[in-house]
Design a protein that fits this description.
This protein is an alpha+beta fold. 40% of the residues lie in helices and 27% in strands.
């Protein structure tokens, strides 16, 4: 990245954050803190009103705003492609089209031509509903998170195969492996849990409020590393249907490959591994090996 782009990037960071530390700038642009000081001095010389607060960081003087943004061809293409993907998923089609119309009106002709051409070259075919922003309860949970409201749910647990009623304090929403999840503090279990929205049978927003405190905040999870050995003649097909937790692949002699995955929960990869039958040899962790053994025993029992 050249210096002009970096200065503009620093200005954007200051525009979008109340305070920005020099360490954060250095990490974001992969430069030394000494270079950060020089860049801040350069912005000051250009008339940008930057305030330095000792021990805290940098901030823009109140009332200073950047002029309208100018997108590069690559940035505009990225926005066009993201809009195409969102429309292909069947979500917010009218809103996406309106946003595209505004973007087209703001772009210079050359940038618009290139971005439009890139978007027309690539088509997205996605099953409707796979990433569904109209999923039941999603809107209510977003409101609950925003207003810090307690939610009552009747939930069907996968592990225990029972339905329980509980109050939860919703903290965040996530989408993975084709399903929506809500991370929340469960008052029944007195712990932070992940709830799959498809398993919620009843959901009601209550009038109770909660506060974000250390006891109900999601802890930083250490990702679980999964190591799987595949025969070389299966590796090509595995790559075509690769799991989203994939990290890297290394050869294991001429006859096999080792693939590594990082996940939050082992259940995220269990059924995907079962779909490969005897071609997937799980090396680590032992807990996943046990989960697969138990599942195979259930299948064997059903077939005998």
């Amino acid at each position: 990245m050249n210096r002009i782009d970096r200065l503009f990037g620093i200005l954007l960071m200051l525009q979008t954050h109340r305070l920005v530390r020099s360490q954060d700038i250095a990490e974001r642009f992969e430069i030394s803190e000494r270079t950060v000081y020089r860049d801040i001095a350069a912005l000051l010389q250009l008339g940008v009103p930057i305030i330095s607060r000792a021990g805290e960081g940098y901030a823009l003087s109140e009332g200073y705003f950047l002029p309208p943004l100018i997108f590069t061809e690559a940035e505009a293409s990225a926005l066009f492609l993201a809009a195409s993907m969102l429309k292909a998923s069947g979500n917010l089609e009218a809103d996406v089209q309106q946003a595209l119309d505004k973007l087209k009106a703001a772009l210079p002709p050359r940038t618009l031509r290139q971005a439009s051409a890139d978007a027309e070259m690539i088509q997205f075919f996605m099953p409707k509903g796979r990433f569904n922003l109209s999923t039941p309860y999603l809107t209510t949970l977003k409101r609950a998170i925003s207003e810090q409201r307690v939610v009552f749910i009747r939930y069907h647990s996968w592990s225990e195969q029972v339905t329980t009623e509980r109050e939860i304090e919703p903290l965040e929403l996530s989408f993975g492996d084709g399903a929506w999840y809500c991370t929340a503090f469960c008052r029944l279990r007195c712990d932070v849990r992940d709830f799959r929205l498809e398993r919620i049978e009843v959901l009601k927003l209550t009038a109770q409020r909660f506060s974000r405190t250390p006891h109900n905040s999601p802890s930083i999870r250490e990702p679980i590393e999964v190591i799987v050995r595949f025969p070389a003649n299966s590796a090509r097909w595995v790559r075509e249907r690769q799991h989203y937790g994939f990290v890297e692949e290394t050869p294991d002699g001429e006859q096999a490959v080792i693939m590594r995955y990082r996940l939050d929960r082992l259940v995220e990869i269990k059924h995907w591994l079962l779909s490969w039958g005897g071609a997937a040899q799980v090396l680590e962790p032992e807990m996943l090996r046990q989960m697969l053994r138990e599942e195979v025993e259930k299948i064997q029992h059903l077939l005998t």
